[in-house]
Every structure is written in C-alpha cells, then in structure tokens.
Amino acid sequence: MTSVHREEFEFTTEIQQLLEILIHSLYTNKEIFLRELVSNASDAIDKVRFQSLTSESEVANKDLALKIDISYDKDNKQLVIKDSGVGMTKEELVQNIGTIAHSGSKNFLKNIKEAKEDINLIGQFGVGFYSAFMVADKVTVRTKSYTADATGYAWISDGLGKYSISEDEKAERGTEITLHMREDAEEYLDDFRIKDIVRRYSDFVSHPIYFKEEQINKLSAIWTKSPSSVKEEEYLEYYKYLNHSEEEPFARIHLSYDAPIHFYSLVYIPKKVPWDMKHQAPESWKSVRLYAQRVFVTESCKDLLPEYLKFVRGVVDSDDLPLNVSRETLQENRIIPKINKNLVKKILEKIVEISEEDTEKYQEFWGEFGTFLKQGYRSEYNNRDNLVKLFRFNTSNCDDSKPTVSLEQYVERMKPNQEEIYYLTAEHREALENNPNLEIFRRKDVEVLYLVDTIDDFLMEDLKEYNGKKLVSAEKEDINLSAIEEPKNEENEEKETPALEEKEFDDLLGFFKNALKDKVTDVKESSRLVDSPCCLVSGKDSMGVGMQKLMQMMDQKFEMTKRIMEINAKHPIIVNMGKMYKSNPREPLLTTYCEQLFDNAQLLDGSPINPREMVPRLQKMIEYSTSTFVSESIAKETDKDTDEKSEE
Ligand code: ADP
Ligand code: MG
Questions:
Q1: Which sign does the torsion angle of CA 58, 63, 67, 70 carry?
Q2: Atom 10, ligand 1: which residue's CA is nearest?
Q3: CA separation (Å) from 594 to 534, 575, 588?
Q4: Taking the alpha carbons of 10, 16, 18, 23 in that order, is the dihedral positive or negative?
Q5: What whole-number distance in Å separates Cα of residue 272 and Cα of residue 269?
C-alpha cells in the first residue's frame, strides 16, 4: 500500500471562530445542515450543466446523470450526500472551504456572535457548508473537478482549526460528502427524518434527490408552469402543503414576469390570519418563500412584502437573483424591492376584485384582515387608492355593529349639500349611539361612520379625505349642517318650549364659563343638540378625543386637551338654570349643576371622570331634592290639616 501524502492546512481565523460557535451551538434546528449540503450539491449540478452548455472544452464524464444521492450507514454513523456536479480542484477546495471570501459572511459571523442572527440563515451568508459541523465531528469531502484530467482529492476535518487534503481515487466527477455524525445527532440517520427534511426544505430543488433508490423530491416547480397548464387540484395541493392545513385559500395569484426583471410567483391569500401573525412578533413572521432560480433561499425575506401583507403565502422565484444570493445580504439586493412593488399591486388588485364580485366572501375576509389593511395604509405609498377601496366601516345607517360600508357607498348616500364625511370614534357602537354630539346628525339623517377599532383614529389622521371630501370628526366645534335640509317628520316638529331671553341666556353662559373655567376652554350655545342639555366638542385645531385617549393609554402623563362645552338653550335644565340664576345669582347649587353636567358629558363619550368628586355631588343634589319634596309635602299636610279642621 502506498502511503498517502496528507497536506495540512489551517482554517482562516474567521472560519475557526465560526466553527467554534457552530460546534458548541445549542441551536435546536440543526436539521438545516442537510438543506445546506443539498443546496450546494444542487448549485454544483447547475454549474456543471452550465459548463456543458457553454464551455468549449469537454466536461468530464459528460453522460453522468445530474442528480443528488443521499444515503446513510447506521452502524458506522455516517451520512453521505453525493452529487454529480462540478466538483473541486485542490485550489478550489482551499479557496471555497477553508477561507471566508465574502464580506457578507463576516457580517454573519459578527451578528451570530452578538446573537443577532439566526443560524438558520447561514446559507444566505455563503457559509452554509460549515453547518455540517453542527451535527458531525468529522467531515470528509471527496471531490473531483469536471475539468479534463482532473485529480480527485479528499478533504478531511474535525472542525477544530485544521483540515487536510490528500489525493483521492474518486472515479467520477462531482462531490461526495461524508458526515461522521456526532452522538447527539444520530437521530438524522433515519429514513423518515431524512425524507421529511428533504421534503420540507428541498422539495422544489430542480435536480432529483435520490434516497434508497427512490426520488424523494417532487421537482415540479409549479410556479414556473404556465397558469393554463396547472390544474385546480394542483394549486390546491400545493397550498395545503405550504400552509400545513386542509383549508382552501381566499384567493390565488399566479404570475410570471419577463421584464424588466424576470420572476415567477404563485401566492395565496389565506382565509384566516396565520398562526405566527397572531402569536409571534412581526420579526418572526414567515412570508412568501423566496427562491433564486428554483433554489430555495428563505421564507422570511423581510423586504419581499410589507408587514401588513405578510399573511400572503406562496413562492417567488427569480432568475435575476443570483444563485449565490447568500453572498450578499438580501437587504442589499436591488431586485427584491422591484418584486415587492409588482406583487403588492397584484395582491391588492386581486382583493379589490373579489370585494367587488362577492360581498359576502369579502365581508369575512375583512373581518379577519381588516386591521392589517388599515395598519398598512400608514406605510403604503403606492397603493393607497386600492387599499381605500377595501376599507369597510360600521355606520349610523347599519342595523348592527358589523363593518359593511365602503367610503364609496357613504359618498353615494351623502345628503344634498353635505360636503364632508363624518365619523366618530368610541370603544363600542352603543357609546356612539348615545353620544349627544350626534343628535343633529340623527335629526338631519346624516350618516356617520361609527369607528370602534383602536387603529381607526390613526387611520382617519392619515386618510384626511376621500374623493375630495374631507373626513371630519363629528365632535369638532365648527361642524355646520345648516345647509342640509331636515327631513319632514313628526319627530322633527318644533316643540313649543319656553326659552330664555337673550340677556338671561348670556348671563347663564357667563356663569357656566366661570364655573367650569378649569375644565373647558369655552362654553357656547349649541346648534347640534336636540334632546340633551349639553355636550363637549374639540377645538378645530386640536387633536381628536379618540387620539388623545390613545395617547393617554400609552403615556400616563399625557394631559387631554380641554374641550369646549356646548349648551342647548332650549333644554328645560338650561332654561331652569337661567331662571334660577336670574332670581339668585349666588345660589350655590348652580355651580354643582354645571359641574355635574360637565361630568355627564364626559361619561357619555367615554372620557374619564373622578368618582370621588362626582358621587358626593350627586348625593348633595339628591339630598336637596328629597328635602324639597319633604318640606313641600309637610306644607301640604299642614294645609290639609287646617282644611279638615275648618270643615269640622
Ligand atoms: P455558498 O454555497 O453560499 O457559496 P457554502 O459555505 O455553502 O457557501 O459553500 C462554499 C463553497 O464551497 C461553494 O460556493 C462551492 O464553491 C463550494 N462547494 C460546496 N459544496 C460543494 C459541492 N457539493 N460541489 C462543488 N462545490 C461545492
Ligand atoms: Mg451553500
């Protein structure tokens, strides 16, 4: 036997550091090593195919089948991944697996040290090969280049700083990687495990993967087919596979673009909010799976879709993304934003289409995803028109609290001379139904958007207008509905009410202003109240109450802006107070009434009140009215007694 000459090499410092991290990692998802090795094998086959198509000199073993073989030997604890790809020369071995050549990889190392990066992304950073050392304590790479008269080599390392290279008698072109599995990684020496991992990560690798004589990947990249050639069941099956469920999707979009960039996409819009979006932070939401030239890259490409559309699932595959997209961080890639732009447009157009064709189906979709779409409006610049078409709101015209009205419908129903779209926000519909600010709207039959979603206040701030009609909060001071005619009906008939003289009313206004000077900025006569004595409105330049309540929830120290109180000159309470003030301006109960009316208004629109002030005040008023009753009835009793006596 001739002795084999082994040449020893040291890994570069970065690789040593990376290996140290990988070897000691407690990372639970170690199965990705197989994905990385299969993807390298697939890359190598892609390269040899390219060479055989383009190179002038002949490729070695040119009739060798292009395939990947996986096998294992349980007794010897070995797992083998073999391909008929380009193979490597000795120089390439040193260059490709021994050195970190790309800045992206160095970045990865830095991030992974600071625990900012997930090992799962290892492949994207051009160091996927080393993931083998998470599961193996020794790796042998036997390889032979496709070039003419190439010599075979064996690369061996235990990952502890050094590797060796020696000549090898490998007969055919390609690479064979043998993993000597660590004790804690023997679970991968298992039929089910191997098939499962391949199916999950490499099912759509574009070269056949064989395991025990059987091809275990599907190969059919259905997104690359023309839509007319894909059967409905195939679309559905693929969705189920992607979604790990039996459910049908809400919609499907299958596209293929040639220019300016080349990409295929087959995406599905689900019917229900995906699990991760409900239970995990946005950073860990999965999204559309990104492929580069049929090779799976990631299912969490941050920039492929905006956050609000991350519920969309499926595949994007671009031939313009380099196979080695791992060599740059995806964030730096200029193709992704272009795909994003096309995709978002198509997705929204599709949803709009369904919303117009099938109201009932869309209504359910809106119930699930409405909040996401509303959130999206803020970050969306190019597709706001389509997003607005999707919004549905509950309004004063609805019989229940379901959001069913689009802004388009609202505008169609606007009253003659109505210039603005009105809305009001509260925690729930009942609170809005009782809000005195809306009395004039009810009387004039003007529709009001009833907004009860926390995001709605922000949405209104962002929307500002629709179709040239301003969106205005119904609790703003300068609301003027005088140009809108009142429908004639009995309820609206003017009732004859005793009114205050002008001077009496002005005096009372003055009194109110003084009594509430710490609580409101002004007190004014109201033109919007019908049945209530008073209400609170916001100054025209101040932030809406709903928004202020949100601010207060986020910041305890946030102080709500004082509002303006409007009083109803025709209301009996106001009329009586006016008379009381005229007969005794110093009557202490008048201040108590003002304060209580203020608190009542606060209560009705869901603003906080202080029970420690309100309860004693109410008790004082009860005491007063009961004692008035008692003294009056005693007076009556005495009268009766005297009458009876005189009859005797
Ligand atoms: P990446 O695949 O992103 O380049 P890897 O760490 O996975 O990073 O692999 C490093 C390099 O090693 C590859 O670019 C390739 O040149 C070489 N290589 C790895 N596996 C094989 C293989 N099976 N056949 C040929 N070359 C390979
Ligand atoms: Mg790789």
A1: negative
A2: 96
A3: 10, 13, 11
A4: positive
A5: 9
State the distance from the centre of ligand 1 to the C-alpha of 338, rounded, in angstroms: 28
**CA 93 to ligand 2 centroid distance, Å:** 14
Looking at ligand 1, which residue's alpha carbon is closest to its atom 1?
126
pLDDT tens by residue, 392-427 = 999 999 999 999 999 999 999 999 999 999 999 988
pTM of the shown model: 0.66
State in Å: Cα 324 to ligand 1 middle.
Answer: 9
Residue 253 has phi, psi (to 5 degrees) of -130, 120
562-615 tens-digit pLDDT: 999 999 999 999 999 999 999 999 999 999 999 999 999 998 877 888 999 999
Instruction: Give one DSSP letter per residue of 145-173, joined into a string.
Output: -SSTTPPEEEEEE-SSSEEEEEEE---SS
In total, the chain counts a number of residues equal to 648
Q: Is there a contact between 421 and 411 (Cβ–Cβ < 8 Å)? A: yes
Tell me the residue type at 585: P
The band of 33, judged by pLDDT with boundaries at 50, 70 and 90, is very high
- DSSP 8-state secondary structure symbol assigned to residue 505: H
Q: Which two tokens stand for residue 315?
A: 């595949």
| Closest residue CA from atom 14 of ligand 1 | 96
